[in-house]
Design goal:
The chain is mostly helical. It contains 4 helices and 2 strands. The two termini are about 20 Å apart. Belongs to the adenylate kinase family.
């Protein structure tokens, strides 16, 4: 936080996970400018997480645990997204890495340029 005053903003991955966390962030840190939501099917997410498990050695990256984590995520997700209807930008995360990156750039570059 030492350089927070000099920064152009924050890019926070995987947060908020619950509605209360989003409210606390905005009250404590800063208002949200944009929410990037990477949409992918549960099948795609499971496949990617299992791929991560193969290389990371994380004990909690098994199919049963992943399914439970996805259920928890989906149970909370709609409330979080509903909190930011005007700030929400959905990105098709089933696309290629280059296509996804291009979509992210289209959203973030104008924001960073104005800071």
């Amino acid at each position: 936080m030492a350089r927070a005053a000099d920064s152009k903003g924050f890019l926070i991955d995987g947060y908020p996970r619950e509605k209360s966390q989003g409210i606390a962030f905005e009250n404590t840190i800063a208002p949200v400018t944009v929410i990037l939501y990477f949409e992918a099917s549960c099948e795609t997410l499971t496949k990617r997480l299992l791929g991560r498990a193969a290389s990371s050695g994380r004990a909690d990256d098994n199919e049963e645990t992943i399914k439970l984590r996805l259920k928890t995520f989906l149970d909370n997700n709609d409330l979080v997204l509903a909190q930011y209807p005007d700030k929400l930008r959905r990105i098709n995360a089933e696309a290629t890495v280059d296509q996804i990156f291009s979509e992210v750039q289209k959203i973030l570059d104008p924001i960073v340029a104005t800071k």
